[in-house]
Amino acid sequence: MIPTIRIQDIADILIMTFLLYQLYSWFRGTRAIQVLLGLGFVTMIFFATRSLDLYMTSWVLQELGTVLIVLIIVVFQTEIRQALYRFSLLRHMLDTRQETRHSQFQDIAETLFRMAAHKTGALIVFQGNESLHDLMTNGVAINGEISPQLLESIFYQGAPFHDGAALICDGKIEKASCHLPLSVNPDLPQYMGTRHRAALGLSERSDAVVVVISEERGDVSLVTAGTFHSMATPSELIAALDGLLRSETERPRASLRQRFFSNMLPKAFLLLGVCVFWVLITTRQGQITSVVVPVQLRGIPENLILIRTMPEDVTVQIKTLSSLTPPPSKLDLTAELDASKLIDGSNSIRVNHSDISSPAGMIITSISPTAVRITAEKKVRKKVPVKISVRGRLPTRIASYRVASEPTAIEIEGPASQVAQVSSVSTEEIDIGRLKTGNEYRRNLRLPDKQITVLRESPIIIRLLPLSRR
Questions:
Q1: How many Å apart are CA 311 and CA 64, to the nearest integer?
Q2: Half-sphere exposure of residue 393, counting CA atoms within 13 Å on the CB side?
Q3: Which residues have CB under 8 Å from 386's CB, separation 6+?
Q4: Which of 127, 198, 355, 432 lies 20 to 30 Å from 379 when distance is taken between CA atoms?
Q5: How far is CA 199 from CA 23, 127, 228, in A?
Q6: What is the predicted pLDDT for the residue at 249?
Q7: What are the beta bridge partners of residue 372?
């Protein structure tokens, strides 16, 4: 039976679909998307086997999933870091980098096509909104203004910087001879060399725009988001760079309708997958379980002490909304009641649903009993003498001595009715026949009642003293 759909469930499905589509957009065209699709397929199998009570298969998949998550974090840490950066809502506010000036694109494009005519290989990176600090390594700082002469000298055949990539940022050539991460896409044509794999690898991991010139064929390609675009003329390259590198405020903003209906196929597929996933995890909705929950009191007034709580636990019926939640019988639930308004005597405190903290996916349907009877008394203190509990008799040689305690009286605390009945507190038994003069003996006190507290932590000291000493 398909569970009843609430407004919260619809919001849950839409939010998860949006997040998954963002992940798909960020990782599309990279090797990470294949791993994410595989992980999603394994997750669906896990919940299907769990709902069908295939215990061994679901257990193996659960243990395997824990290991796979750790491996994915280690292997794809760069992609994950870039995705988190893209997800940050403050990155545009905190990014002080200025855009590359459009007036420079014409000089750059004409220079690159002139180099391509002479089959001079080149690799130029235009930084987008994302930092490339962790992706471009071993670069040599230049920080020079862009000029045809500087570009041609960097990629001149036989020059020290010829084989690396040049980074253009803030209207300047910031670095040269940079190493880029290579793409591992197995579908790349054989004729594409290291430059093309490096350009593709960087575009798969960031929003950078890369222009690559083939040394063998002399063609110019623009690479962005893991896709190659062949450039036939300088004007075509200028238009492409202008559209990709203009600031966010200058780009034509798509309407809400355009953004909603674009890429409908992956959106529909993700929505369907989330709906199936939601059905799998809510197949056990409506199951009601009875759980015995202990009662705990908080905020007891300092001047009162508890005598009795009836009952000490309540029976709670819990409705499970999702199979993702653990069984109610395995939860450590407690009913925490507010006892700050207790008075001396008999009290009644109602047990409300809010007094029991149930995890998400569970609803408390009933509590029995609905109230707890509590008896409390005033807390009082009283000073009583210490009574030494002895056995045997004093030897004749020390008959002129007496057994004395230090201190001779102690303070007790507890319920008024019980404290009033205590006239003394006894020590642990001691054999006075073995006592020697000049020695000290230590004994603990015996509590007259478990609710009475002796306000002394150290044992009582017992000595033999002459009868003349008082």
A1: 45
A2: 4
A3: 405, 407, 408, 409, 410, 424, 425, 426, 427, 445, 460
A4: 355
A5: 22, 12, 9
A6: 40
A7: 349
Give me the architecture of the 103-245 domain, per CATH.
3-Layer(aba) Sandwich (3.40)
What DSSP assignment string belongs to 221-247? EEEETTEEEEE-SHHHHHHHHHHHHS-
Q: Which CATH number fits domain 287-377: 1.10.530.10, 3.40.50.970, 3.20.20.80, 2.170.120.30?
A: 2.170.120.30
Compute the distance between CA of residue 230 and CA of residue 220 in angstroms, rounded to an integer: 6
CATH 3.40.50.960 fits 388-466, yes or no: no
Residue among 212, 197, 224, 220 at smallest CA distance from 127 = 224
**Kind of pairing, strands 453-454 and 409-415?**
antiparallel
Residue pair 161/124 in contact by the 8 Å Cβ criterion: no
Q: What does the pLDDT look like over 184-212, one tens digit per residue?
A: 777 777 778 888 888 888 888 888 899 99
pLDDT band at 461 (very low <50, low <70, confident <90, very high): very high
Mean pLDDT of the chain: 80
438-465: average pLDDT: 87
Kindly write down the DSSP assignment for every residue of 337-385, as one continuous string: EE-TT--SEEEEEE--GGGB-PPTTEEEEEEESSEEEEEEEEEEEEEEE
Q: What is the mean pLDDT of residues 450-454?
A: 86
Where is 40: in which H helix or E strand?
Answer: helix 31-51
Q: Which residue has the higher pLDDT, 281 or 316?
A: 316
State the span(s) of the chain assigned CATH 2.170.120.30: 287-377
Statement: residue 54 has pLDDT above 60:
yes
Tokens in use for 371?
């109230």
**Bridge partners for 213 per DSSP:** 122, 220
Question: Which tokens belong to 195?
Answer: 């430059």
Residue span(s) of the chain under CATH 2.170.120.40 come to 388-466
Taking the alpha carbons at both ends of the chain, their separation in whole angstroms is 87
Q: Which of 186, 177, 182, 174 is nearest to 204 (CA)?
A: 182
